[in-house]
C-alpha cells in the first residue's frame, strides 16, 4: 500500500508540474508577439527551476526526516498561497524579451515549481531511508508517465474545452489537493520511522566528487538531450504556428525516451547506435535546409523521429551510468544541471552567437560526439570509436560546405527573440531581385534592375490587398494602419496625400527594410513606423482617441507562423474601434499549414460584417500567389468589386465556425495535414 501511495503522489506532482508549463506559456503568447522563442525561454525557466528543486532536495537530505517533512510542507503551503502572483509594478521593461518571460514565470510559479520538482527525489529518498530499500529508479518512469499524460491531455482536452482562467483555477485546486495528500503521506512516513527506528539523516549521503568523469558525462548527456528538445521545437515552430500542441509533442517524445530508458535494465553503449545516429544526422541536415518544403504532418514526423533517436541514446546512457542509493541526489542534480545548461544555451546564448538556428545541427554533432566518448577503450584498440570519430569529422565538413552553398545569396542576416531573418539577392535566369526572408517565407522583394514596380510577391495589384486599396483610393486620401512591416512594400501603394502607419514588433525587420530596401525611403505617402506589438499599439491609440483610419491591414506572420492574439474576437473588436464606420479590415491569410477562414467567418458573424476572399494563384516562380480576406460593412466598397474578382462568404451558411477569444483558442482544429 505504501508503494502505491508513493507512486500516486509522484505521478500527480509530475502531472501538475508539466501541465502548468503550456498553460502559462500560452498565456504569455500575446504579451510577446506570439513567437516560438516564448516556449524556448519558458523551457529555460522550467529547467533552471528543476535544478533548484533538485538542489533543495539534496540540501534537505542533511536534516532528520521529521524536519525535512515539516519544512517541505510549510514551504508548499506558502507557495500555494503565492502562486499566479503578478505584480503590475514589476514589468522588467528594460530587460530582454527572454529575460522578461523568465521573470514573469518566476513571479507566478517560481516557488511552487521548485518545490514540486523536488517531490519525486524526496519521496524516493524517504522511501529508501524509512523502508531500507534500494533506489526505485523505475519510479522515475512513473513520474515521466504523469508528465506525459499532462502534456498530451492539454492540447486535446484542456486547451479546447476550458478558458485560461478556468485552467489556472483548476490547476491551483488540484495542487492544493496534492499538497494535502503529500502531508498525509509524510505523516505516515514519520509514524512508521518512529515505530521502526529506521529514520536516517543526510550523514549517509555520499560525497561523490562533483567533477568526476562520470558526473561530467551525466551533465553532458542531459545537456545534449535538452538541446535536442529545444532545438527541435524551435525548428518546427519556425514554419508551423507556435501552440501548445507543437510544444508538447517534442517534450512528450523527450519524456517517452526517458520512460523507456529508465524502465529497462542497464545497458551499455553498443556499436549498433552508430547507424541510427548517422541517419538522424543526415535526416536532420536535410530538414534544416529544406524542411519548410514539406507539409505539417511530414515535418512533425521527421523531426519527431530524429528527436526520438537522439534522446533515446542520451537517456539510455544516463540509465547505464545511474549510481547506487548513496549518489542518487547527486545523479539527479547532474541531470538537472545538464538540462539547465542546455536550455540556457538554446534560449539565451545561441541567439547571441548564431545568426542562424545552428544549435540544431550542433546538437546532432554533439550526440555523435558523445557516442564516441562512451567507448572506454583506447582508440587504437577500438575500431568502432575510430569510425565514429571519422563520421563526426566527415559530418562537420559536409555541413559546413552545404551551409556555405545555402547562404551564398545572403546580403545580411539577423536573429533575435522574434526569429531569424535574411536579405538575399536572388539572381537566376528568371529572377533578379532582393528578398526579405523570415524563416522560410518571403516577406517582400524588390527588383535589382532599377525599375520600381510591383509585379511579384504577395502585394502586387492583382492580389486582394492591391484591389482593396485601389478601390479605397476612389473615396479619398488613405489613412492606413499596417500590422507587419516586412520589406515595406505596402508603402508603395501610397500617394502624396495618404498616410501609412506601420506597426512592427521585430526591430531587425525595420533595420533590414530601411537599409536594404527602398520602399520606405521613396514612398510618396507620409510613412510612420511604430516599433511595438500591433495590438498593443492600436490599444494605446484607441485610449488616446486618435483619429480613426479607413483601413487596417493585418500582415504580421513571422515565417509561416500566425500570432493568434491578433486573430481573436477581442483583437477584431479593437480593430473596429480604430476604424471608421465605413472602414475596411484586410487580413493576409496565406498559410501552408493553417486554414483561418473558420475564424474569420465566426468574427464576421459576431461583428455583423461582410466577408470577401481573394485567392490569387501565382502563375510562376516570379508571380507568387496569396490569399487575402476583406471585412467591411461599407456598401460602396462592396459594390465597387467585379463579381468574378472574389468570393463572398456568408458566415450564417458556413458549416465550420471556430470562435477564438483571448481566453480560449486553439489552432489544432484548423491545421492542414
Automatic annotation (TrEMBL):
Question: For this UniProt entry, which segments traverse the membrane?
Answer: 35-57, 69-85, 105-127, 139-157, 169-190, 210-232, 244-264, 271-290, 296-318, 330-354
Q: Which GO terms describe its biological process?
A: polyamine biosynthetic process
Domain of life, per UniProt, equals Bacteria
Keyword Transmembrane applies: yes
Keyword Chaperone in annotation = no
The record's section on SUPFAM superfamilies has:
S-adenosyl-L-methionine-dependent methyltransferases
Which UniProt keyword terms apply here?
Answer: Membrane, Polyamine biosynthesis, Transmembrane, Transmembrane helix
Q: What is the name of this protein?
A: Fused MFS/spermidine synthase
Organism (species): Shewanella salipaludis
Amino acid at each position: 500500500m505504501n508503494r502505491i501511495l508513493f507512486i500516486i503522489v509522484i505521478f500527480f506532482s509530475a502531472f501538475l508540474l508539466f501541465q502548468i508549463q503550456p498553460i502559462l506559456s500560452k498565456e504569455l503568447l500575446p504579451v510577446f508577439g506570439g513567437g516560438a522563442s516564448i516556449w524556448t525561454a519558458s523551457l529555460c525557466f522550467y529547467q533552471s527551476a528543476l535544478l533548484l528543486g533538485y538542489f533543495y532536495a539534496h540540501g534537505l537530505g542533511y536534516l532528520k526526516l521529521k524536519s525535512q517533512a515539516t519544512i517541505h510542507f510549510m514551504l508548499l503551503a506558502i507557495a500555494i498561497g503565492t502562486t499566479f502572483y503578478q505584480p503590475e509594478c514589476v514589468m522588467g521593461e528594460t530587460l530582454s524579451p527572454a529575460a522578461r518571460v523568465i521573470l514573469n514565470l518566476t513571479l507566478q510559479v517560481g516557488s511552487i515549481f521548485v518545490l514540486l520538482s523536488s517531490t519525486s527525489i524526496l519521496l524516493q529518498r524517504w522511501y529508501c531511508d524509512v523502508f531500507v530499500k534500494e533506489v526505485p529508479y523505475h519510479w522515475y518512469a512513473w513520474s515521466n508517465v504523469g508528465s506525459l499524460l499532462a502534456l498530451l491531455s492539454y492540447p486535446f482536452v484542456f486547451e479546447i474545452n476550458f478558458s485560461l482562467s478556468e485552467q489556472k483555477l483548476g490547476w491551483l485546486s488540484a495542487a492544493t489537493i496534492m499538497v494535502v495528500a503529500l502531508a498525509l503521506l509524510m505523516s505516515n512516513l514519520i509514524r512508521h520511522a518512529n515505530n521502526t527506528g529506521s529514520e536516517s539523516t543526510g550523514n549517509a549521503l555520499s560525497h561523490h566528487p562533483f567533477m568526476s568523469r562520470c558526473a561530467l558525462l551525466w551533465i553532458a548527456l542531459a545537456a545534449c538531450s535538452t538541446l535536442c528538445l529545444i532545438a527541435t521545437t524551435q525548428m518546427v515552430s519556425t514554419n508551423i504556428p507556435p501552440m501548445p500542441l507543437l510544444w508538447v509533442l517534442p517534450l512528450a517524445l523527450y519524456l517517452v525516451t526517458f520512460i523507456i530508458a529508465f524502465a529497462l535494465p542497464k545497458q551499455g553503449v553498443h556499436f549498433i547506435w552508430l547507424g541510427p545516429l548517422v541517419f538522424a544526422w543526415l535526416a536532420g541536415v536535410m530538414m534544416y535546409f529544406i524542411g519548410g518544403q514539406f507539409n505539417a504532418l511530414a515535418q512533425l514526423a521527421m523531426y519527431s523521429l530524429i528527436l526520438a533517436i537522439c534522446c533515446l541514446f542520451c537517456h539510455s546512457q544516463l540509465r547505464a551510468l545511474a549510481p547506487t542509493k548513496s549518489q542518487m541526489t547527486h545523479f539527479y542534480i547532474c541531470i538537472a544541471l545538464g538540462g539547465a545548461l542546455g536550455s540556457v544555451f538554446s534560449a539565451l546564448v545561441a541567439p547571441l552567437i548564431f545568426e542562424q538556428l545552428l544549435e540544431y545541427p550542433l546538437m546532432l554533432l554533439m550526440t555523435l560526439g558523445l557516442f564516441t566518448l562512451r567507448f572506454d577503450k583506447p582508440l587504437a584498440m577500438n575500431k568502432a570509436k575510430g569510425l565514429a570519430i571519422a563520421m563526426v569529422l566527415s559530418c562537420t565538413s559536409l555541413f559546413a560546405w552545404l551551409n556555405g552553398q545555402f547562404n551564398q545569396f545572403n546580403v545580411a542576416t539577423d536573429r533575435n527573440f522574434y526569429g531569424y531573418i535574411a536579405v538575399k539577392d536572388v539572381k537566376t535566369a528568371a529572377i533578379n531581385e532582393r528578398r526579405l526572408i523570415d524563416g522560410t517565407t518571403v516577406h517582400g522583394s524588390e527588383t535589382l534592375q532599377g525599375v520600381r514596380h510591383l509585379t511579384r510577391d504577395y502585394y502586387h495589384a492583382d492580389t486582394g490587398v492591391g484591389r482593396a486599396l485601389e478601390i479605397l483610393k476612389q473615396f479619398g486620401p488613405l489613412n492606413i494602419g499596417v500590422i507587419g512591416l516586412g520589406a515595406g512594400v505596402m508603402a508603395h501603394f501610397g500617394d502624396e496625400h495618404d498616410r501609412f502607419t506601420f506597426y512592427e514588433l521585430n526591430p531587425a525587420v525595420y533595420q533590414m527594410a530601411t537599409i536594404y530596401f527602398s520602399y520606405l525611403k521613396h514612398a510618396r505617402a507620409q510613412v510612420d513606423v511604430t516599433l511595438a506589438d500591433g495590438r498593443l499599439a492600436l490599444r494605446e491609440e484607441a485610449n488616446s482617441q486618435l483619429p480613426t483610419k479607413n483601413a487596417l491591414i493585418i500582415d504580421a506572420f513571422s515565417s509561416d507562423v500566425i500570432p493568434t492574439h491578433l486573430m481573436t474576437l477581442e483583437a477584431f473588436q479593437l480593430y473596429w474601434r480604430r476604424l471608421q464606420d465605413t472602414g475596411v479590415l484586410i487580413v493576409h491569410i496565406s498559410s501552408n499549414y493553417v486554414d483561418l477562414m473558420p475564424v474569420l467567418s465566426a468574427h464576421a458573424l459576431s461583428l455583423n460584417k461582410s466577408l470577401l476572399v481573394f485567392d490569387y494563384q501565382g502563375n510562376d516562380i516570379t508571380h507568387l500567389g496569396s490569399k487575402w480576406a476583406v471585412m467591411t460593412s461599407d456598401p460602396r466598397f462592396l459594390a465597387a468589386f467585379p463579381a468574378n474578382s472574389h468570393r463572398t462568404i456568408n458566415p450564417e451558411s458556413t458549416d465550420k465556425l471556430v470562435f477564438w477569444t483571448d481566453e480560449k483558442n486553439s489552432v489544432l482544429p484548423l491545421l492542414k495535414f
